[in-house]
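Hi there,

I know you've been waiting on this one. I reran it after we fixed the sequence typo, so this is the corrected version. Both the input and the resulting structure follow.
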Amino acid sequence: MPLPLIFRAATLDDRDALIALVTSAYRGEASRAGWTTEADLLDGPRIVPEVLEHELRRLRSIVLIAEREGTMLGCAQVCDDAGIGHFGMFAVDPTRQGGGLGDALLRECERIAREDWRLPVMRMTVIDVRDELIAWYERRGYRRTGVKKPFPYADARFGAPKRDDLRFEVLEKPL
């Protein structure tokens, strides 16, 4: 029986390990071991140090780490965005995807937003061509809002797009 999953808030000391984890889950060949890869959509960084450092210092923002036996297995950010919970920076080690870690991380972020911060809704943005990922969130109670947001093509901090039709869709769930 595996040891329990431990959740903790990330610190600046976790920066490099978080960047490596998030990158491995979404970009490059390593990401193809899991199902969350964006390797066919984007090259380059998924998160850059200055963005991560900002989120680690932000008030009412937690970058949550899931670990077992001291090994970082996944992470996600939850923050209070003007009275609405926002979920992002979600990554699970691609070799461990499909085993319930993502579910556990999402549920813990929802709990923080609902119980600790008393927020009524959790919201996120997902690249709208990621049908399998959107379906995963829908099975967990999230709904497409129909609100679309442009992809930041001119901002290299978000990677180098391989397609010209990327945009975000807002998903949300009442807490």
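Quick highlight: The mean pLDDT is 91.

Best,
R. S.
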